[in-house]
């Protein structure tokens, strides 16, 4: 049973306003759905338990390097036999491709009649890819095998 947040009167289900004081009734269900939607994007699969702990401990640095642009090539070639490093190298490679895509979009801002749109999309893309890189670095440093939000499911490296 719900109660008015202003006067404390008991509310009937489905009421939009309190029958005693007339205050609008807050819809808490709608707020919760919005929070859960954002959390659902960030809550990606964590498959750390399926990886060898020795491999994780000895290749954390390689996992971290994977999120620094072209340095993704270091774990790709130097840690070919590490499942942990290859997982993060794949995540970093996908992120690099997305960064390049947003850079191309951002470069199109010099087109006068639609340049503003491309500039905004490119800037937002840069912010998003920076946030994803930070998430990836934190996951690698903590020894987690956790996909990045939105782009983490894309597999390039086997």
Rg measurement, Å: 23 Å
Instruction: Let me know the largest β-sheet.
Output: 2 strands, antiparallel
Number of helices: 6
* Beta-strand content estimate: under 5%
Work out the helicity level.
Answer: 40-55%
State the end-to-end CA separation: 54 Å
Structural class by sheet pairing and helices: mainly alpha
In short:
This protein is mainly alpha-helical and 158 residues long.
Q: What does this protein look like?
A:
The protein is 54% helix and 3% strand. By secondary structure, it is mainly alpha-helical. It folds into 2 domains: 2-40, no CATH class; 46-141, no CATH class. The protein is flat.
Helices and strands in order, then pairings?
Elements (H helix, E strand, L loop, with lengths): L1 E2 L6 E2 L16 H15 L10 H6 L1 H6 L7 H6 L4 H25 L7 H27 L17
Helix pairs in contact: 5-6
């Amino acid at each position: 049973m719900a109660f008015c947040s202003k006067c404390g009167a008991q509310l009937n289900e489905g009421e939009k306003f309190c029958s005693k004081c007339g205050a609008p009734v807050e819809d808490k269900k709608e707020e919760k759905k919005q929070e859960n939607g954002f959390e659902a994007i960030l809550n990606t699969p964590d498959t750390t338990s399926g990886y060898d702990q020795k491999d994780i401990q000895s290749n954390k640095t390689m996992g971290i390097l994977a999120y620094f642009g072209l340095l993704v090539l270091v774990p790709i070639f130097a840690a070919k036999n590490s499942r942990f490093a290859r997982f993060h190298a794949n995540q970093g490679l996908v992120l690099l491709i997305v960064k390049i895509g947003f850079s191309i979009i951002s470069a199109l801002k010099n087109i006068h009649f639609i340049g503003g749109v491309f500039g905004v999309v490119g800037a937002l893309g840069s912010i998003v890819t920076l946030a994803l890189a930070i998430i990836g670095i934190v996951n690698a440093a903590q020894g987690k095998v956790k996909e990045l939000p939105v782009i983490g499911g894309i597999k390039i490296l086997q």
